[in-house]
Amino acid sequence: MQMADCPSIKGKDGARVGRIDAFVQSLDKNFMVPVGGAIIAGFNDSFIQEISKMYPGRASASPSLDVLITLLSLGSNGYKKLLKERKEMFSYLSSQLEKLSECYNERLLYTPHNPISLAMTLKTLSEHRDRSVTQLGSMLFTRQVSGARVVPLGSVQAVSGHTFRGFMAHTNNYPCAYLNAAAAVGMKTQDVDLFVKRLDKCLKTVRKEQNKESNASAVENYNKTEDVDIEEMALKLDNVLLDTSQNSS
After folding, report:
1. Alpha carbon 86 to chain centroid distance?
2. 147: in domain
3. What is the C-alpha separation between 197 and 205, in angstroms, rounded?
4. What is the spatial distance between Cα 47 and Cα 195, in angstroms, rounded to a whole number?
5. DSSP secondary-structure letter at 59?
6. Is residue 149 classed as helix, strand or coil in its secondary structure?
């Protein structure tokens, strides 16, 4: 709903060539209210009615009340102003993420048809192992960065007997791990700056740990090689002494 061209317009195009029963729009992301509600829409009235009949009757009315109060407070012009600011924040977030990605030999993915979400590659992390990628995600979450998420490479997940390859990604065989971030309604410049600052610190920490592990591995390999060389020299010396002893006899 926070897009200039409502998702329902694009959804109709998708429904013509594939199958889209309904689409869910979170209230917290679209109207800045507490998490807990959503607007469900679709192209088949009877199907949406069937969903509405599943209402248990004992659920809280808080989400509906929160949206009502918010819309009455903002008004039509206030909400349109938020949508305009969100577009500006998307451009700012895009430029800041692009600068940061270049500092770490990564890149911002080119996604011209997505005016809300952005993605930054994590190739240099996934080259070592997926643990570094998931570690970055957990570090961001513990630092109150709850909107961004990391997508590991080639994750496989089974749900209700169905196997999903490339789980959480947009395709089965995406070529690299990536980090996803979105410019949602209500985001301010300082929010973007704080997010990029925390992401930068987390990336530095993960890279530092990777370098430590790489150095430790290199030292271990060197010690193993050195031990092998010493053993070979000792064996050669034993052979020389044995030959000398035999010649003397």
Report:
1. 20
2. yes
3. 13
4. 40
5. S
6. strand
Q: What is the pTM of this model?
A: 0.75
Residue 160: Cβ within 10 Å count: 4
DSSP category for residue 113: T
Has residue 25 been placed in a domain? no
CATH classification of the domain holding 175: 3.90.1150.10
Contact 93, 184 (CB under 8 A): no
Q: Could you report the per-residue pLDDT of 9-53, keeping only the tens digit for each? A: 555 666 667 778 888 888 988 899 988 888 888 888 899 888 888
Q: DSSP states of 154-200 as a string?
A: T-EEEETTEEEETTTSSSTT-SS-EEEEE--TT--HHHHHHHHHHHH
User: Does 120 map to a domain?
Assistant: yes
Closest CA to 20 of 39, 48, 1: 48
**Residue 46 CA to its chain's centroid (Å):** 36
Cβ atoms within 10 A of the Cβ of 134, count?
16
Alpha carbons 24 and 22: distance in angstroms, whole number: 7
Report the number of distinct structural domains present in the chain.
Answer: 1
Give the domain extent around 135.
91-211
